[in-house]
Each structure stands twice: as structure tokens, then as C-alpha cells.
Hints:
The chain is mainly alpha-helical. The protein has helices at residues 2-25, 29-42, 51-67, 74-98, 110-144, 153-192, 198-242, 250-295, 302-349, 389-392, 402-406, 410-423, 437-458, and strands at 358-359, 365-366, 429-430, 433-434.
Amino acid sequence: MSILNEIVSVAVGFYKRIQALMSSDQSPPVAATVETPLLHQEQPPPDEEDDDLGQTLRRLEMFLTLLGFSQSSTRSLVLSWIVFLTIGLVLPVTVLELGHCKGCERYQNKSFELNIVVSQACLAGVSLLCVSHNLRKYGIREFLFVDQLSGRMGRLKDHYMKQISNSVKLLGLWSLICVVLKAVREIIRMLYVPHDQPWLSVFILLSMILSWTYLSTIFLAASSMFHLVCNLQVIHFEDYAKLLDEESEISFFIGEHTNLRRYLSKISHRFRIFLVLQFLVVTASQFTTLFQTTAYSGRITYINGGDFAVSAVVQVVGIILCLHAATKISHRAQAIASVASKWHAIMSCSSTDSTQIRASPSGVHLEATTNPPVSFRISNSESDMESMDHYMRMPACNNSHFPSYMSMSSYHRRQAFVLYLQMNPGGITIFGWTVDRHLINTIFFIELSLVTFVLGRTVVFTSE
């Protein structure tokens, strides 16, 4: 019992000492609270690595909102289309009715003006409808595919920001050029077309410039967004080409290339209606202009027909932005096969290739490898994956194929990879038609044939 009492007394004493130490440690709480804010001030915010890119995307989204592309709610959708109809259609038509004078056909042709207003409004309406639908459905980040490759976000962030800045500058440059051309034309017409009151001339001038600037900026902004999306994918393909110097696993290359092709298929699906309608509206507008100018019996000058030239500049710039971006990403996607072929040739001829080929008893060259086969998952989370049915029909990985994969030599795996790239080039497509040089040549000769047909119907040479 004495021993038990001693143990209890020792335990009680030890417990009292621990309590005394704990109370002494908690005595200066002020110093700890004073130092804590200093430590928090030195720590970076949790989203600092994405802060610059996030600010750039927010500024871009704010700019698109000012143009009416942000239609996330019913209120914003109704307000956007009311502003579009008011500034894009009601205002210019009203101004043309107010400023029309019967004795001024030499300096102002009402049918010419209405044709230009309708064509510009149709282009801007198609652009506003298609881009706002994609932004409302996917958001700015997924719309631009800046979050798809999260593992590369750190090293590609600067390239993203630079490309976004270049696209905005390109949009501002062409918008400024078109506005200056329109302003010069309207000022010249104001000097030649008289009005009873000076304020009416100023009102017509400002109203036409405002409506023209609004419609042209919407159309050019939509074309610039497609141009930006394609150029961001060019960054991904350039980064993919660099992987050949860093990685050696063929299954990894195929998986990354499958992801890139899936992104291109999504872009093609989201913008195919916009591209088709853009081509149709521009073609119809240009041929209507050709019919009107060739059938007009009077004299056409820069004063009464200058809007034809200005509208043609805007339309051609938008078409060139889209075609240039689509062909650029298509050619980059097709050039991956050439890069892989060069890499395959260098690796095959290199003496530093550590892979050794052994012969099996049956005489077939085999090589044991520890690299496990990789199965590529296909995401069906988006509705636009209906355009990728060929992916869904791919057979699932079978375990019986594992031995054949593991027995393939390094040379044969690289050869299979190059053959895969050659048979799956990728690129921007419009209902199955790849947008490349061949399609552009086809479009050019179709347009040329239509032009010669119209000229043959309207232009008549008489011999005296």
C-alpha cells in the first residue's frame, strides 16, 4: 500500500507541474496576436498565381458585356436585344427617312443605304446570337479553353495573357480604321447634302456613326473571339510539340493528342453555325451590292456609294480573321505528324537508344517493357459531344491486347504513333470539311464563278 500511495503522490505532483507549465505558456497572448497579422501579410493570397490571368479575363468579359454578349439572365438578354434593335435598326432607318431629300439622288441613294444597314445588322445579329449563346452556356474560361489543361496553366499563363492582349489590340485597330473611314464618308456627305437646320445634319452624322460603330464592333468582336480561341489552341499545339523532347512514353503522347483533337472538335461544333451564317450573309450582301451597282443607271461616287466600300472592308476583315485563325490551327495540327516523323527518325538513327530488341523462340522480335497500357477516358459531360460520335464508337481496351503492347519494340511503338498522327490530323472543321488551304481555294473559285455569272447577267456591251 505504501508503494501505491507513493506512486499516486508522484502522479499528482507531476500533473500539478504540467498545469503550472501550461498556465505559464498561455500568459503572454498579446505577443502572439501581434505577430500573427505580420505573418499573414507576408503570405500571398490563395489565388495569386491566377490573379493576373483572372483580371485579364474579367476585363475581357466586361468589354463583351458592354457590347451585349453577356446574356446570363433574362433581364440582360432582353436589354441586350432591345439595345441592338434600337441602335442597329431603328436609329439608322429613322435617320435615313429624316435625312432623305428628293433632289439629292446624286449624293444619296436610299436603296443603297438600306441595303448596307440590313446587311450590317444581319452580320451583327448572327455574331451576337452565336457568341452570347456560347458565353451563356460555358462561361468565359471554358469558352476560351484556358482551364482545360490545368497542369500546364502555370507555364502557359503568360502566353494566354499575351495572346488575349494581342487580340484586343487587333480588334481595336481594325475598329478604329473602319470608324475613321465611315466618319470621313459621313462628313463628306453632310457637306454635299443640304438640310434646312444645321442641328439635323449634326444629328444625322452622329447617329449614323454611332450605329455603324456599334454594329461593326459587334461583328469584329465575334470574329476576334474566334481568332482568339484558335490562337490559344495554337499555344497548346506548340507546347505539345515540345513534349517530344521531354517525354518518351508513347501512350502519354497519344493521350495528349486525343485531348487536343477533342478541344478542336468542341471549337468546330460551337462555331460552325457562326461561320456558315457569316459566309452566307457576307456572300449575299456582296452580290446584292454587285447587282445594285451594275444595274444603277446613274453615276456612282464615293459620296453616294462610299458605304459599299466601307462595309466591304468590315466584312472582308471579319472573314479574313476567321479564315486565318482556322487555317492556322488546322495547319499546326497537321504539322504535328511531320514533327513526330522527324523525332521518330532521329530516335531510330540515334545510337543512344537504350531499347534492346530480343528474339522470341518463334522468331518475332520482342521487347519486354514495364510501361502499362493506358486507357483514354472520354468525357460525355457536354451536349456538344454529339459531334464526336466517332470517339464514342472506339472499342474499349481489352486486357487481351496487353501482351501485344508489352511485346512491341520501341521502334514499332514510335512507328504506330506516327501512323496514328498521319491518320488523325485534326483541325477546325465545318460539318466535316476541314478549314485549310484546299477549302479556301474552293471558296475562292466558287465566289469567282458567282461574280462572273452576275457580271454576265448585268453588264452589257453595245457596239455602235
